[in-house]
Amino acid sequence: MDRSAPFSDLWAVVTRDDAVLIASEVEVDRILAEYSPRSLGFDEVLAVPWYDQDRALAVAIEFGGGTASDGHPGLGENCFDKLVTLRLNLSDPEQDDLRELGADVAEVVGHALRCWRPGQHDWVLQANLVGALLERGIYTPVMIVGGDERVRRFRHPLAGGRSVSSLAMVAVVAERGGLHTAITRYVTSEPLPSELLRLFGAVRRIEHEILGACRVGEAYSSVLIAMDKAYQHEGHAQEWEKHYQGGPIGFAQREFEISPANTESKWYKQRIETGTAVAWNPSLSGGAKVEDTYIVQASGLELVTTSSLGLPFSPGDDDSAWIDGIVLGL
Questions:
Q1: Most buried one in 48, 163, 201, 220, CB count within 10 A?
Q2: Which helix (H) or strand (E) holds 284?
Q3: Do residues 204 and 318 touch, judged by C-beta distance below 8 A?
Q4: What residues are paired with 284 via a beta bridge?
Q5: If 0-12 CB within 10 Å is exposed, 13-18 middle and 19+ buried, where does residue 30 land?
Q6: Cα separation values, 2 from 135, 174, 281, Å
Q7: Residue 141 backbone phi and psi in degrees, to 5
Q8: Nearest-CA neighbor of 234 among 271, 192, 286?
């Protein structure tokens, strides 16, 4: 009901023996009518007055004891990190949902960029994207749309009603059914400058090294070390310090996000499991960035943000083949 609220209006309380939902009296009838809580494993929906902000906490403690929660200070131990660890390995149905989401997002983004025309305002492109995604039940916790010199100057050229004449970038984190995918795409109306082409090639090679280190059983430290070396090899040492680098994705826009400098983080030694989704986001100053969502399988990485409207660059392709994929020319 309020996406800016620190806690959800709907609480799930789970014990060893049963599970219930707690919701405002305003929402209970709708929840019962439209979501069939019993079919999802919940025994009942407990109603609390909308005007008593402390009642949900009291009911949760009364029913479940309040031993742990995913972050509420009134419910004992904060087990958020433990829940993240448990949900990193997506189940088979969750992987299927992620595939469908990734394909839908890639198709919508590709279509919106193909429909863009020079001179169109960034707000118009963003509105077209958001509307088309909502038609498929997809929300956008992250939506970055910008163009021209702002793409080359800023990592996050947020839309501001500016006309885009030759180069547009779209970066989206999309959510449906609790799952998230991330994607970045460009469109251009004219040949790109040689320097920007060079940067695109370099950032794709960096991504290739990062993805190559994402193997089942390896620790995320291996990925981060490969990331650091790749930036160095391309002549851009420490460039990762200038922008978020991405990481595991799934039930959050990133389940955690660490850099090569975070060697003391608990996630640094976390092992990569089969079924983990990742979305790395290397970038270089000057406008080059890449971002796609993959599922780590025993046989390798499975790309999910793909559609018939434009496949991302495959490592080993030459620059001309790549530019037809990631930069959708008019």
A1: 220
A2: strand 283-284
A3: no
A4: 288
A5: exposed
A6: 20, 18, 29
A7: -65, -25
A8: 286
Q: Quick one: how far is CA 183 from the chain centroid?
A: 8
Q: Closest Cα partner for 328 from 117, 102, 135?
A: 117
pTM: 0.91
Radius of gyration of the CA atoms of the chain, in A: 22
Question: Burial of 137 by CB count in 10 Å (0-12 exposed, 13-18 middle, 19+ buried)?
Answer: exposed
Using an 8 Å Cβ cutoff, are 147 and 108 in contact? no
Amino acid at 72: H
pLDDT, tens digit, for every residue of 259-317? 999 999 999 999 999 999 999 999 999 999 999 999 999 999 999 999 765 444 333 33
Helix (DSSP H) and strand (DSSP E) numbers for the chain? 9, 15
Structure-token pair, residue 257: 């996000």
- Spatial separation of the C-alpha atoms in residues 151 and 163, rounded to whole Å: 13
Sign of the C-alpha dihedral computed for residues 50, 54, 55 and 61 taken in this order: positive
Token pair in block for residue 264:
């003391």
Q: CA dist 89 to 199, 201, 268, 276, 298, Å?
A: 34, 32, 17, 5, 12
